[in-house]
């Protein structure tokens, strides 16, 4: 089963969900606004794709928390990802022990069709 992590009102998540619906691909949504992601999951993901890929330095949450001023290293970024799941770049899609971060239609076609 494909598991999509994100928030329902995020444009990139909407695109991913639309892609899955259009291609009749079953998925399960894990919503960061209603569910808390365990830090172990962030650790697992960061081993696969790296903290820099997961950390969304362009998000509203990043700006609101003024994290740019902290000049975070990877350990600091990982710590913040655990504290504030909305800093995770979205969507994160888990399937067959693989991980896709962000929405890219070509990557989705290659991976799921």
Number of helices: 6
Number of strands: 4
Shape: globular
In CATH's first tier, which class applies? Answer: Alpha Beta
Under the CATH scheme, which architecture would be assigned? 3-Layer(aba) Sandwich
How many strands, which pairing sense, and closed or not: the largest β-sheet? 4 strands, mixed
Number of domains: 1
Helix content: 40-55%
- Average pLDDT over all residues: 96
CATH superfamily: Glutaredoxin
**Low-confidence region ranges:** none
N-C termini distance: 15 Å
Looking across the biggest beta sheet, what order are the strands in?
2-1-3-4
Compressed to H and E, one letter per element, the order equals: EHEHHHHEEH
Beta fraction of the residues?
15-25%
Structural class: alpha+beta
Describe the structure.
The chain is 44% helix and 16% strand. The protein has one domain (2-112): Glutaredoxin (3-Layer(aba) Sandwich), CATH 3.40.30. It contains 6 helices and 4 strands; from the N terminus they run E-H-E-H-H-H-H-E-E-H. It has 113 residues and is an alpha+beta fold. The protein has a 4-stranded mixed beta sheet, sandwiched between helices. The protein has helices at 11-22, 39-49, 51-54, 60-64, 74-83, 105-112; strands at residues 2-6, 27-31, 92-95, 98-101. Helix 2 (39-49) packs antiparallel against helix 5.
What is shown here, in short?
The protein has 113 residues and is an alpha+beta fold. Helix content is 44%, strand content 16%. α2 (39-49) packs antiparallel against α5.
């Amino acid at each position: 089963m494909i598991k999509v992590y994100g928030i329902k009102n995020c444009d990139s998540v909407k695109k991913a969900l639309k892609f899955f619906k259009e291609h009749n691909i079953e998925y399960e949504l894990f919503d960061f606004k209603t569910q808390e992601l365990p830090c172990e999951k962030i650790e697992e993901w960061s081993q696969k794709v790296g903290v820099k890929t997961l950390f969304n330095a362009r998000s509203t949450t990043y700006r609101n928390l003024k994290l740019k001023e902290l000049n975070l290293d990877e350990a600091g970024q990982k710590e913040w990802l655990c504290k504030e799941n909305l800093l995770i770049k979205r969507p994160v899609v888990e399937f067959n022990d693989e991980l896709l971060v962000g929405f890219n239609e070509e990557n989705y076609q290659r991976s799921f069709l």
